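Issue 218. Parser rejects a valid record. Input:
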Amino acid sequence: MQLRCSYRLYPTPGQQQALARAFGCARVVFNDGLRVRQGAREQGLPYIADGDLSKRVITEAKRTPDRGWLGEVSAVVLQQALADLNTAYRNFFASVSGKRKGRKVAPPRFRSRKDNRQAVRFTANSRFKVLDNGRLRLPKVGDVPVRWSRSLPSEPSSVTVIRDATGRYFASFVVRTSTDEALPETDSEVGIDLGLTHFAVLSDGTKVSAPKFLRRAARKLRRLQQDLSRKQRGSQNRKKAVVKVARAYARVADTRRDWQHKLSTAIIRDNQAVYVEDLAVAGLGRTRLAKSVHDAGWASFTSMLEYKAARYGRTFGRVDRWFPSTRMCSDCGRINDRIDLSIRAWDCPCGSHHDRDVNAARNIRAAGRADLNDRGAQVRPASVPAPRREAVTHRELAPPGV
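Output the parser choked on:
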């Protein structure tokens, strides 16, 4: 399988200028290609093929005085910018025609030099190279120092150089992992119920408290936002304040990502099979709980579980979101009436006493094992993004009996 490995870069001032030229040239080529295709559409002309577009906005443009500076950067960077534009158009056409499932994809739009994230991609054709001294050699940029937090599992097929809103530089390598990374098999299987009070409740009774990184940093973020609002627009002090706010948010995101990586790795290492509930995160993100939902980061956590399970030879499954994991008794299978969110424990007529979240996790594990399919459980291997129009979970649309 293919993975991305990201490392911190520390380019010199001269290399930063060279990367800035690469960012700008890639952005100009992308915008020129988009402008040409939009103009052809407005004039009623046929869709311009990828090869013809590349010839027009790169090969021929380099010979003109207005775009002669495109030759100062690697040609692969420019070709990859057009490849991104072509991919965006294909995704848009597939979404409009119904071939692409999930929420609708908008047509590509122009890139701005003021975007917080700038990126360029170098493929193997550009002959980038990881040197023996640990530096990354990029064409027409130089040998950039890299902070290697771990070794690459294989030779990279491409590298994307990213500059984020805080001014940090990263190198994201695409590598292919071998098939000998499977972990020793275990007999343990676990179901996970995700929530807000407890980030994750496992079917074995383990409860992982929600760290709430954004809530904990709210006071500092509020102060930085207030300082930013007082700065005059266009001033240097405002630019400095923008960077301070970006760094604070980046620290929250980095801390959350590191914590989720450690937790997901521990769960995958200790269990042969992992099952989670397919939550409508996009819909919940538009309710009054939006801030807490985004702070939890359920989608990124389940994505980590999914790809780590595939990498290390584990089983991963998502239980249908309409499966009544909370209302179903994990002992007798009886489905009770709707349970208010304030009720954290309940008794079943069969005599069982259940913790709300632990019972849901056990039902998710059972549904993942496909032991309850005759009761309405559905298991699918991949997630389906919630439609844009879905603001909340509509129980009236649930299948009968759920």
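Fixed in the parser; the record now loads. The radius of gyration is 25 Å.
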